[in-house]
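ok new one. same drill as before - structure tokens go in, u give me an amino acid for every spot. 281 of them this time. try not to just spam alanines like last time pls lmao
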């Protein structure tokens, strides 16, 4: 048995140790807890870290967040995830100068990175930065169907929010498939509402490259709103309206209405996938 202070986190090596007990874990920083936990266990030896705290009601809000983060970080790459959580809990601080932290606080770390990425991409391409343009096309999809992660499927609201964010940030269909497999493995077979959520994200991934800002559809049809810039040839839309005037109607320069009988959610999703595929062809 070794009884010590946090000096153990500096790298004291005890190869045979397989258990660590951390008293008053709520008093430690997130990086400290991660380092202390790493003092036990080897690649071929399972180890245990016990974090002792007083009554949860007496914990500060930040301490609660730190402990929750350390509990969730169990896989490879946990160090990066913990660093991100630490950034969210304590704030970003100064990234590029003495006054940068104020701007960072105003726009948020994630949006700041999006703005920086857009500026760098524009400069590399030799383009002028349009500061008035939206950062990226959102692709708002509404099909009047239930699309959510039910409370009784996943009671932990924090985990639900994390999954919502991961699903909404998926950059391709392969990522969505991996998330599906992960959710089935961790929480069980997907409910119809969750499948609908993934289908809406698939539609979004198909709509955004086409310059579609919004899709709104119900049982009797709906409309598609195009952004000011779209790669779709306008003549293609005009021909579509001319060939099927009973289905498609132009309303203004950017809005295409459609009238189709789609009472079932599955048929509505399939029709939208087919239509977006035809636009992209």
């Amino acid at each position: 048995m070794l009884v010590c202070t946090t000096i153990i986190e500096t790298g004291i090596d005890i190869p045979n140790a397989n258990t660590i007990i951390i008293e008053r874990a709520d008093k430690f920083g997130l990086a400290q807890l991660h380092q202390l936990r790493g003092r036990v266990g080897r690649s071929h030896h399972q180890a245990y870290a016990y974090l002792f705290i007083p009554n949860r009601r007496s914990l500060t809000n930040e301490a609660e967040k730190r402990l929750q983060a350390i509990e969730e970080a169990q896989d490879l790459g946990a160090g990066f995830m913990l660093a991100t959580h630490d950034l969210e809990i304590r704030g970003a601080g100064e990234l590029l100068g003495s006054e940068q932290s104020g701007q960072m606080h105003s726009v948020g770390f994630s949006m700041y990175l999006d703005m920086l990425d857009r500026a760098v991409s524009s400069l590399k391409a030799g383009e002028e930065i349009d500061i008035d343009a939206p950062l990226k096309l959102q692709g708002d999809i509404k099909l009047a169907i239930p699309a959510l992660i039910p409370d009784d499927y996943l009671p932990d609201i924090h985990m639900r929010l994390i999954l919502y964010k991961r699903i909404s940030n998926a950059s391709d269909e392969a990522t969505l498939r991996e998330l599906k497999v992960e959710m089935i493995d961790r929480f069980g077979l997907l409910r119809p509402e969750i499948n609908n959520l993934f289908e809406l994200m698939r539609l979004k991934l198909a709509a955004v490259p086409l310059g579609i800002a919004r899709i709104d559809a119900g049982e009797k049809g709906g409309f598609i709103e195009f952004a000011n810039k779209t790669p779709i040839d306008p003549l293609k839309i005009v021909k579509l309206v001319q060939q099927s005037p009973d289905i498609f109607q132009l309303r203004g320069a950017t809005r295409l209405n459609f009238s189709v009988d789609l009472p079932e959610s599955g048929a509505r999703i399939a029709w939208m996938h087919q239509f977006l595929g035809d636009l992209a062809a």
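The chain has two domains: 6-88, 140-280. and btw The chain has a mean pLDDT of 83.
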